[in-house]
From TrEMBL:
GO terms for molecular function: lipid binding. One of its GO terms (cellular component) is extracellular space. The gene is Bpifc_0. It is found in: Secreted. The N-terminal region may be exposed to the interior of the granule, whereas the C-terminal portion may be embedded in the membrane. During phagocytosis and degranulation, proteases may be released and activated and cleave BPI at the junction of the N- and C-terminal portions of the molecule, providing controlled release of the N-terminal antibacterial fragment when bacteria are ingested. This is Bactericidal permeability-increasing protein. The keyword Secreted applies. Keywords: Antibiotic, Antimicrobial, Disulfide bond, Glycoprotein, Immunity, Innate immunity, Secreted, Signal.
Length: 221
């Protein structure tokens, strides 16, 4: 028993100095190694894990500093998990550096197109089917380039690292990006129509419904 205890302590000490990555998907990995030895109390145990997300295979330290925090003293549940802003900051940084926020959408994109982000699968669209005719009615200049309706291709790109801020019952995401709209010509070449900059502020609230973690998204501005 003494040997097993010493081995566990040695393992914990070793894990605080090594990166212990676990794949999230093909783009990112999370380091869940211990920051310090677990604190054993009566009747619970505190585990302080790093929770740093890296681009897959790239363990360069992110440009953020983790701030310490504590979990409220409650005892009506068997397990408590807490995530800091640092976890979400390193997540957005990792996905931003891999280009995960750069998306090209064409009329062939259907419901099978998924964007994996923050352990959720976000469906980009059920079916994308718009043409230059729609934009011509909104932006008259488009009609000069496209008398005949052509399919449209959209290129979405994040121009800055998204900023995640934790609130009392939800978290907000500040997103800066751009969208370039192309007309797809009969010979499969593309003609750029216009580019617009996008700045969005959204709130995301998480709830457990029917034993599933559900998220509700609200566009603030």
């Amino acid at each position: 028993k003494i040997l097993s205890v010493l081995f566990v302590i040695e393992y914990f000490a070793l894990s605080t100095t090594l990166t212990v990555p676990m794949p999230i998907d093909d783009l990112a990995e999370v380091d869940y190694s211990l920051n310090s030895l677990p604190a054993v109390f009566q009747p619970f145990i505190d585990l302080d894990l790093k929770g740093t997300v890296y681009a897959a295979g790239n363990y360069t330290g992110p440009p953020y500093v983790a701030a310490p925090f504590t979990i409220p003293d409650q005892s009506d549940s068997m397990l408590y998990l807490a995530f800091s802003e640092y976890f979400f900051q390193t997540s957005t940084f990792a996905y931003y550096t891999t280009g995960a926020f750069n998306i090209t959408i064409t009329e062939e994109v259907k419901s099978g197109k998924l964007l994996h982000f923050f352990f959720f699968s976000l469906q980009t669209c059920s079916y994308f089917n718009i043409s230059t005719e729609i934009f011509s009615s909104i932006i008259p200049e488009v009609a000069k380039y496209s008398v005949t309706p052509y399919p449209v291709m959209l290129k979405l790109m994040a121009t800055e690292i998204p900023v995640i801020s934790l609130e009392q019952d939800s978290f907000t995401a500040e997103i800066q990006g751009s969208m370039e709209v192309f007309a797809v010509l009969p010979d499969s070449t593309t003609q750029s129509l216009f580019t617009m900059n996008i700045a969005a502020n959204t709130s995301i609230a998480l709830n457990i419904f029917d034993q599933k973690l559900m998220g509700s998204l609200c566009l603030n501005r």
